[in-house]
Amino acid sequence: MKIYIAFIIVILQVIFVSGQTFSVGDIVYEISETGLNLREDKNTTSKVVKLILPGSKLKILESDSVTVFTSNNKIKGSWVKVVDSLDLSIGFVFDYYLSRYPFFKFKKNNKTKCWENDILLDFANELGKLDSFEYSNYSDGEGWYEMLYFTLKNEVKYIEHRHWEHFENELQFKNLNTYEILHYVNAILKHCKKNHTSIDADYFKKNKILSIYRYEDCCSHNMRIYSEGNNLIIRIQSDPGS
């Protein structure tokens, strides 16, 4: 089903620059846009085993949350030992560029160059649904509203809002680090052909809101991004509605 995006609401909390806390056995994803070096040992001078491609699925084999490494970009994190699910390569990576959450997967329309799939539903299905409940309200006599609320793995919420005149869905994240927030926001913004093609880590220190409208050709009717801490909510309406 082709999705015409009407609006996206993203709520972000205070951005911080630090690594993650992963445990042995955790499944994580590489979210650096350029890929991540898999090294033989816990340092940047160690031999590179391979380049882990963006979006790769990894499993944590060893996690040393005590050892903190600060990169040249003043980013703090730890070295973790991982195995790449693609070819079972084993080595060490810097955890700042890892996430418990997969990429958004955009299926582009060759003519419009915009995505035509439901990226939030696809994300929810990939991460995995654990539990759900349903709420319905048919009392106004003219229309109806139905909400499906899903708990996903790693404390993510996925919600479908079904109104009589339109459909909306949303993802709710919490406790993301700086790079995760930038990654998921910029993954959407890179489809914009005019003003807002990306944000940086300081954007929400200077601006409380980023508003993008249909005429900016961002594969959406309207998009609004709010800054408030390190939680992230993305909400998309799939048609203009009334």
How would you describe what is shown here?
The protein is mainly beta. It folds into 2 domains: 5-15 and 104-237, no CATH class; 27-99, SH3 type barrels (Roll). Helices cover 10% and strands 39% of the residues. It contains 3 helices and 17 strands. The strands form 4 sheets. An 8-stranded mixed beta sheet has the order 11-12-13-14-17-1-16-15, covered by helices on one side. It has a 5-stranded antiparallel beta sheet with strand order 9-8-5-2-10, with no helix packed on it. A two-stranded antiparallel sheet has the order 3-4. The longest helix has 12 residues, at 178-189. Residues 1-9 and 11-18 have low confidence and may be disordered.
